[in-house]
């Protein structure tokens, strides 16, 4: 199987499995797991924040951030295709009791002028703007890199209004790898950040949220409330540490393969590549293939290739650690056979 559904399908490396076996552990709810502590210290350092917290998933990390920053009745501003808005089951309304106000972005960027207009003034009728969420890379924008200048502008507007900025950086390490900059160059323009260890970085599970000491102290309580306080979880922190320190540099390879895949697919007339491939995600519009998304995905699967639906006429293909150059070649051959069977 050539599994291009997501970078979340990556399995732990041998080194990670060995580290899991050997991990020193303790009860992390009592603050006694030395491996978790090492992971959190290292994460805080890499992310340029005072403190960090190991959480079960990216979704939990984002939700803890919203719960910690906001009060019920607040309004949260975010880009209209943001993961927190689009893919988290309405959790921010269900758990934090906040309402969302979405802003139409450009390839994941929130235009600062629209942001300014969306921030609420002091009026008895209005909800208070409690948080601004940004996302980098932006998943629904096809793994788009949000430029550092945009992050700086958004953070500046937020600071002028005393509103915190949370970065959903599930794939922030892809941004840093692609632009060859330290991760902290991006988190500098945020109040808090969430990063996934379990996507391109390859850990079996877990995310990190980072921010000030005071924020992380309150976040720890929210994690417990949500049932995310785990016990001998050093077995998961150990591979997380390897993911964060040793797997980041190779992410660029995934981006090169994604671009090669996109270039090859562009040569097939019936397909349109709808995203500019900045990182490891390729989004293809298949409308002109004469097949439905469902049918095409089924045909691909019959040829041992997996992808996911991404819209009424689009599919998403994501490169990762287990995808090789020859997998890309084979994928292109299968697309050609499926869509242009007569040409040779
Ligand atoms: C995957 C993802 C998340 C959620 O992470 P999970 O670990 O799957 O809960 C959040 N934000 C973005 C942008 C993501 O791509």
The tally of strands reads 13
CATH fold-type name of the largest domain: Aspartate Aminotransferase, domain 2
Q: What overall form do the CA principal axes indicate? A: globular
> For the residues shown, what is the average pLDDT?
97
CATH architecture of the largest domain: 3-Layer(aba) Sandwich
**Strand order, largest beta sheet:** 2-8-7-6-5-3-4
CATH superfamily of the largest domain: Type I PLP-dependent aspartate aminotransferase-like (Major domain)
Distance between the termini: 25 Å
> Can you tell me the residue ranges where pLDDT is under 50 for at least 5 consecutive residues?
none
Whole-angstrom Rg: 21 Å
CATH class categorisation of the largest domain = Alpha Beta
Helix content: 40-55%
Give a short overview:
The chain is of the alpha/beta class and about 350 residues long.
In words, what does this structure look like?
With 344 residues, the protein is of the alpha/beta class. The chain folds into 2 domains: 7-246, Aspartate Aminotransferase, domain 2 (3-Layer(aba) Sandwich), CATH 3.40.640; 250-343, Alpha-Beta Complex (Aspartate Aminotransferase, domain 1). Helices cover 41% and strands 16% of the residues. It has 14 helices and 13 strands. It has helices at residues 14-22, 34-47, 58-69, 83-86, 91-94, 112-118, 148-160, 172-179, 184-187, 213-225, 234-246, 251-266, 293-302, 325-339; strands spanning 2-3, 51-55, 75-79, 99-103, 129-135, 165-168, 192-196, 207-211, 272-273, 281-285, 305-306, 308-311, 314-318. Strands 2-8-7-6-5-3-4 form a 7-stranded mixed sheet, with helices on both faces. Strand 9 (272-273) and strand 10 (281-285) form a beta hairpin. Helix 1 runs antiparallel to helix 11 (234-246), helix 2 (34-47) runs parallel beside helix 11 and helix 12 packs parallel to helix 14. The chain is globular and about 65 Å long. 50% of the residues are buried. The model has no long low-confidence stretch (mean pLDDT 97). The structure holds pyridoxal-5'-phosphate (PLP). Pyridoxal-5'-phosphate binds at residues 57-59, 62, 83, 135, 139, 168, 170-171, 196, 198, 207.
């Amino acid at each position: 199987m050539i599994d291009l559904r997501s970078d979340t399908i990556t399995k732990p490396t041998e080194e990670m499995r060995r580290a899991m076996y050997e991990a020193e552990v303790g009860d992390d709810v009592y603050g006694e797991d030395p491996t978790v502590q090492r992971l959190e210290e290292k994460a805080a350092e890499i992310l340029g924040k005072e403190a960090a917290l190991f959480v079960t998933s990216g979704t939990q990390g984002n939700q803890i951030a919203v719960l910690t920053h906001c009060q019920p009745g607040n309004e949260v501003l975010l880009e209209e295709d943001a993961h927190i808005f689009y893919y988290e089951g309405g959790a921010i309304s269900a758990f934090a009791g906040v309402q969302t106000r979405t802003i139409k972005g450009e390839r994941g960027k929130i235009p600062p002028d629209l942001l300014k207009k969306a921030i609420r003034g002091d009026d008895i009728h209005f909800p208070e703007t409690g948080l601004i969420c940004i996302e980098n890379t932006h998943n629904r924008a096809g793994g788009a890199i949000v430029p550092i200048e945009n992050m700086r502008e958004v953070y500046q507007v937020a600071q002028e209004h005393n509103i915190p900025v949370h970065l959903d950086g599930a794939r922030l390490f892809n941004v840093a790898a692609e632009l060859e900059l330290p991760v902290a160059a991006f988190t500098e323009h945020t109040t808090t950040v969430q990063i996934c260890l379990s996507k391109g970085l390859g850990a079996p599970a877990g995310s990190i949220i980072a921010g000030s000491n005071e924020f992380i102290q309150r976040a720890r309580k929210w994690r417990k409330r949500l049932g995310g306080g785990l016990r001998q979880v050093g077995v998961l922190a150990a591979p997380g540490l390897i993911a964060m320190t040793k797997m980041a540099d190779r992410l660029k390879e995934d981006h090169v393969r994604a671009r090669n895949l996109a270039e090859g697919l562009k040569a097939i007339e019936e397909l349109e590549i709808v995203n500019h491939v900045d990182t490891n995600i390729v989004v293809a519009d298949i409308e002109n293939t004469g097949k439905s998304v469902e049918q095409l995905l089924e045909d691909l699967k019959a040829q041992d290739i997996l992808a996911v639906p991404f819209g009424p006429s689009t599919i998403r293909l994501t490169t990762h650690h287990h995808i090789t150059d020859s997998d890309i070649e084979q994928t292109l051959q299968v697309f050609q056979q499926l869509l242009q069977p007569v040409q040779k």
